[in-house]
């Protein structure tokens, strides 16, 4: 028997999801003009409502120490006039992006005169689970509506007051533009069971996007009855080819490994051609020790390293997200590609080489969402690839691969016009 | 403890899937020319090997009565010189289709000089479960290789000899063109457990495509650890608007309902505007009774029908696949759209109208893979939409929607060229 509280929670979640679906039926027909005006006006009103938003943020900050947040987490949670200005700027930037909805992807007139259009349309309703950053609330709501989707926002409880203040401004602006406020709903309960309830509702929710730790994503994949847009790991490699510019390689590797260690496109593993290992690895060790990075190499690499630690089989699959780099020595490009295809999480893998044929072979045969030649793995990012705003990144192959922006939140339909056509 | 036989089966399935993955690493780099030459030469050799294939088909036909196949099933299983000629023609037609692999989907040079390409690439390994039709074996193998994918073919046991004979010809031709024969593997065991084993192997298999009854598809969705390309139902509607040409409507409805009743794009439910019901429904009843089709209508429709059966709530969701048509009367376009969005399986839904605004509103707001204006629902088919060969149809929204041809068996990757670029 379920308790009254459970029934209440289920009926709350049902109501949110059902209302989101109803809103999505109107959103799919909104003009680009209305969506952009809403974004620009929301941007203005967020700035003019800064004092209220900061007040709400104070409530969250007051709870932060009770919740035991780290200094870094408190920093991410903290809003200022400057940060609200950046959130507002983000909305204006999304207004400048091309509207994917209505794009004619393909079309033809068949020999029998039937007119076929393949047209880009919204997915419908998104369920977005994310970390406690108030800016993500505004960003996700903006990306959803611009791509014609309704969104159910489930942020961390740490930021609930700030997120509510932001969404209230965007909802009231929506009303003024004829956009149903149910298009952007914040989950008002912080009950952990609510996530499980929403994950059952595939009659109303078309896609779930979990952002957070691996255990959250595993739980969502296990429980979701609708598709999940996700990535688990970023075990990113760089292969230093025998034809690599070693100075350039050191710079790129330092950036890929050290610029931000805790992110999914950071470098975790180096594959090095045997013919340059003796020359390259001591230089790398000097540079990496200066950055406090431990090197875990295979047996052969140990002869070139002073303080190398012997790598185990687990190291080849590890996403350290910290100051460790694994090293594998190979005898050929083919061997490098085989190693990467076996152990990579297929997020981002790179090659350093001045040889065109090696670059092209690597780009063709490495089966990853992004393959990078002579550049840092850190460039696999929606902004850096020129997509504008992104809501997440996918290491799956189906539907969307790599950074997911407006277009990745759409599907298509065939629209067929005839004049009494029948099939013979 | 698993038995020896279970271990044997598992290791057989592992071996097939692993070899398919290895083959797929080579397939992704095959030139269009090689793939097309293989298709054309396979086509020739299927025709020149017709006697052997017919002999193998005799073995299947000899088993057909033991297996208790219906007359229709035996007809689908039976090969003739003419049918082998059609299979061969199918391969030559696939050779003429554009190769999706290597298509530059999008690209730009970023302000920092980084060159970004979004390039279409194969998915990898497909696991295809299908009914016992030998022509589908050849077709699926051809579509897979043309789209750069390896395929594991699990056909019905009824056609195993015919399928094996066809695949042997295509594999030996593959060898002559440097295409790994493991690219097209027929599952050699008819053990039902083999499907379950393959569905576990997401380290090697990228997509499963089940074609068959709903219970098979449900089982595959429940057990698969990789994405599934599928459709369950085709509960297709036509809405006869108040501005419809009634003569044209009768012709289109007859075609949609009666041309082939057992297919997924056949008409199952009619939605009729109140203002034309009294005029239209008696004509419809006359026509449908001539086709042996029973009408199951709502209460209001009964006043216009002589022999109408009262519909129940279940009728609105039913896919009859036979001589029954449900009828609902509505007072407006909005009501028609709401009914269809609620009960449709989102496969194919149509409107009959001469009013442009109604047609456009219906096309925008009906959330189905294909929306058809003034034409039969039977046109939602890869061939009819001009896609060439198709391997299945999807009512999902993610990845692919509607008929799935070569392009729907692909994904993309980002290829990024730099010159020592680092992120700042």
Summarize the structure.
The structure is a homodimer of 424-residue chains. Chain A has helices at 4-27, 32-48, 50-64, 71-77, 81-96, 134-146, 160-176, 193-199, 214-223, 246-258, 274-290, 299-302, 313-317, 333-343, 356-365; strands spanning 104-109, 115-122, 125-129, 150-154, 184-186, 207-210, 236-240, 267-273, 294-297, 309-310, 324-330, 348-352, 370-375, 392-394, 402-404, 410-421. Chain A has 424 residues and is α/β, with parallel strands linked by helices.
Supply the key terms.
homodimer; alpha/beta; Aldehyde Dehydrogenase, Chain A, domain 2; 2 domains; seven-stranded parallel β-sheet; four-stranded parallel β-sheet; 15 helices
Care to describe what's here?
2 copies of one chain form a homodimer. With 424 residues, chain A is of the alpha/beta class. Chain A has 2 domains: 4-230 and 404-415, Aldehyde Dehydrogenase, Chain A, domain 1; 236-379, 3-Layer(aba) Sandwich (Aldehyde Dehydrogenase, Chain A, domain 2), CATH 3.40.309.10. Chain A is built from 15 helices and 16 strands. Chain A has helices at residues 4-27, 32-48, 50-64, 71-77, 81-96, 134-146, 160-176, 193-199, 214-223, 246-258, 274-290, 299-302, 313-317, 333-343, 356-365, and strands at 104-109, 115-122, 125-129, 150-154, 184-186, 207-210, 236-240, 267-273, 294-297, 309-310, 324-330, 348-352, 370-375, 392-394, 402-404, 410-421. In chain A, helix 1 (4-27) packs across helix 8 (193-199), helix 2 packs antiparallel against helix 5 (81-96) and helix 3 (50-64) packs antiparallel against helix 7 (160-176). At the A-B interface, helix 10, helix 15, strand 13 and strand 16 of A face helix 10, helix 14, strand 13 and strand 16 of B. Strand 13 of chain A pairs parallel with strand 16 (410-421) of chain B, so a sheet runs across the interface.
């Amino acid at each position: 028997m379920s308790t009254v509280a459970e029934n209440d929670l289920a009926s709350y979640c049902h109501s949110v999801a059902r209302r989101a679906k109803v809103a999505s039926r109107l959103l799919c027909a909104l003009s680009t003009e209305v969506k952009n005006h809403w974004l620009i006006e929301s941007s203005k009103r967020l700035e003019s409502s800064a004092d209220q938003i900061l007040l709400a943020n104070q409530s969250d900050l007051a709870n932060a120490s009770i919740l035991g947040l780290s200094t870094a987490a408190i920093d991410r949670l903290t809003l200022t006039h400057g940060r609200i200005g950046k959130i507002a700027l983000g909305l204006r930037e999304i207004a400048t992006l091309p509207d994917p909805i209505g794009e004619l992807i393909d079309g033809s007139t068949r020999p029998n005169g039937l007119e076929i259009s393949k047209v880009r349309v919204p997915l419908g309703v998104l369920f977005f689970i994310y970390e406690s950053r108030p800016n993500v609330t505004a960003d996700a709501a903006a990306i959803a509506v611009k791509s014609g989707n309704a969104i159910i926002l489930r942020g961390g409880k740490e930021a609930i007051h700030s997120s509510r203040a932001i969404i209230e401004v965007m909802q009231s602006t929506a009303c003024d533009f004829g956009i149903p406020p149910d298009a952007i709903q914040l989950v008002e309960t912080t009950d952990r069971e609510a996530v499980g309830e929403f994950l059952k509702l595939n009659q109303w929710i078309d896609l779930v996007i979990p952002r957070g730790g691996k255990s959250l994503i595993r739980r969502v994949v296990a429980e979701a009855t609708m598709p999940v847009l996700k990535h688990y790991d970023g075990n990113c490699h760089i292969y230093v080819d025998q034809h690599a510019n070693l100075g350039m390689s050191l710079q790129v590797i330092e950036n890929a490994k050290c610029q931000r260690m805790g992110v999914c496109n950071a470098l975790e593993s180096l594959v090095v051609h045997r013919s340059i290992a003796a020359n390259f690895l001591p230089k790398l060790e000097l540079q990496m020790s200066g950055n406090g990075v431990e090197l875990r190499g295979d047996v052969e690499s140990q002869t070139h390293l002073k303080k190398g630690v012997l790598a185990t089989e687990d190291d080849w699959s590890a996403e350290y997200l910290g100051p460790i780099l694994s090293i594998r020595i190979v005898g050929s490009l083919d061997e490098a590609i085989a190693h990467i295809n076996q152990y990579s999480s297929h997020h981002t893998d790179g090659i350093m080489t001045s040889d065109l044929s090696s670059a092209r072979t690597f780009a063709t045969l490495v089966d990853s969402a992004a393959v990078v030649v002579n550049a840092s793995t850190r460039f696999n990012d929606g902004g850096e690839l020129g997509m504008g705003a992104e809501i997440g990144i996918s290491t799956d192959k189906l539907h969307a691969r790599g950074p997911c922006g407006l277009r990745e939140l759409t599907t298509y339909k065939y629209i067929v016009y005839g004049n009494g056509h029948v099939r013979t």
